[in-house]
Amino acid sequence: MAVHSLDVLLIADLLNGYVFIGCALIADLLNGCAFIGCALIADLVNGCAFIGFALIADFLNSYVFIGCVLIADFLNSYVFIGCALLADLLNGYVFIGFVLITDFLHSYVFIGCAFNNRFFERLSIHWVCLNSRFFE
């Protein structure tokens, strides 16, 4: 199903558990999703919430989050807070900007201005921040 909407809107997809609130462009092109604008975007089934002025794009599970945004994935216990570029390109993670990144499930905490680049299990982190991992 391809859905396009550009307006001040409330969109509720109760079957799939989606709620879109705000002034936004929301496009679902065969599960390649793009959310652009000032919006509250909540995926209740997968436990995700996107709050703020942001561009949020999911193109076949390659995630790009750009803008000043609160991004919370409650099911997987991820919280991203701050002005940041967050990109997941086929599990190669890139976090750039002033951002708080918390993974409660795996006990990761990244705080500050950081560049986090993960490609094929190689991890390079450059920051002015605190990095804590409580459980190995």
What structural keywords apply?
nine-stranded antiparallel beta sheet, disordered N terminus, 9 strands, 136 residues, disordered C terminus, mainly beta
Report on this structure.
The chain is mostly beta strands and 136 residues long. The chain has one domain (2-133). It has strands at 2-13, 18-29, 32-43, 48-59, 62-73, 78-89, 92-103, 108-119, 122-133. Strands 1-2-3-4-5-6-7-8-9 form a 9-stranded antiparallel β-sheet, with no helix packed on it.
Instruction: Compute the number of helices.
Output: 0
Mean pLDDT: 45
Q: Report the order of strands and helices.
A: EEEEEEEEE
Please report which band the strand proportion falls in: under 5%, 5-15%, 15-25%, 25-35%, 35-45% or over 45%.
Answer: over 45%
As a whole number of angstroms, the C-alpha radius of gyration is 15 Å
What shape does the CA trace take? elongated
How far apart the termini lie comes to 42 Å
Structural class: mainly beta
Domains (count): 1
Number of strands: 9
Largest sheet: 9 strands, antiparallel
Order of strands in the sheet with most strands: 1-2-3-4-5-6-7-8-9
